[in-house]
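User: I'm preparing a small set of examples for a lab meeting where we compare how different chains pack in three dimensions. I only have the primary sequence for this one, and I'd like the structure in token form so I can line it up with the others. Please keep the answer compact; I'll paste it straight into my notes.
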Amino acid sequence: MEIFDYLILGAGPAGLTFANLLREKMPEASFLVLEKETQAGGLCRSADVDGSPLDIAGGHFLDVRRPEVNRFLFGFMPEEEWNLFERDSRIDMGTYETGHPFEANIWQMPQEEQVKYLKSIALAGCNLGTPRPEKFVEWVTWKLGDRIAKAYMLPYNAKMFGADLEALGTYWLDKLPDVSFEETLLSCLNRRPYGTQFYYPKKYGYGELWRRMGESLGDRILYRKKAAGLDPETKTVTCEDGSRFRASCIVTTIPWKSVQRYENCRPDIPEKIGRLRSTGTEIRYVPKHLDTKAHWIYVPDPEISYHRILVRHNFCIGSKGYWVETNLDRVTGSHEGIAFRNETTYPLNTVDKPGIMADILSYMEQRQIYGLGRWGEHQHYNSDAVVERAMRLFERIALQRA
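Assistant: Understood. Below is the structure token output for the 402-residue chain.
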């Protein structure tokens, strides 16, 4: 059995970035990427549907806010192959739409609604200086006010992550700024829009970028190789087909729970891995035109099964139709048409997750096994954030080992 310098599990954005950095900056290093699917890209893969590309795990876009990441990715798919858009994301409130994020676009609502939301924000616990709650539902209300919580945040999160919201921790919401009554009032008076920019390929789906990155690796990526077992002590991976691979260093970007066996492992580690939770999604194509300029629309209404609409014809030039994203637990009955089922789409930020992941990552890193990206770190990172984290991990372990 050949021993590689690096073994990378998974050919999604995280694994592809780390592998290509090895190829570019450490050509003398031996490495191999194992991917269970027949093509690279992970959750960012695209398929041809109705004559145009459709992203099979939901809407993926390249944010402009990480220029270092974009420069790296443009090395595989040059900037001139992308369109640049001013983001138009909205929330369907039933009788009207408002821009996203909710709290920055209250000015778009009817005036009587603005007054109600402003009053609710003024009375939010974070603005009154009341103690911060520990439970998810109370925390969201404390942070944003009861009206935003009830009308949008709580029903939307229940649709996306599951009805048991109290199982979620609040630590991952710390990045949300306090909703200032004064600033929100000024935005209502001045009618200021809020937005940012993103890139999307001119001729392809988002998956084309990652397909090219996989192609650049040549025979250093093996497809149809699903990791079934991991021995942390010998750093050996056993695949479902019986093939075995060993390395001095392993970078895993796949869900920890997707590995069926952990051999020669501290007994509590597999038990902790078993407690990690995630949700899956169905992406269903609808061959109709939507009369909107929005790129995507959030749908908090609990009576509607899906939680998000991606309006393909507004960012994928020359296409038609849109697709809806639905938590797998909310998919009922049989439906005609084209749909893609993703068993693991979003990691759940449960109350006990920080402690679990700290133990898993610490134990594994002591054995030169590193978790990376959305699944390796069990964090809800977008693709551009994943690429940045792969760059930092490469600097931390690969360059130091050289």
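A couple of notes for your slides: The chain has two domains: 3-87+200-401, 89-190. Residues 3-87+200-401 form a domain with the FAD/NAD(P)-binding domain fold (CATH 3.50.50.60).

User: Perfect, thanks.
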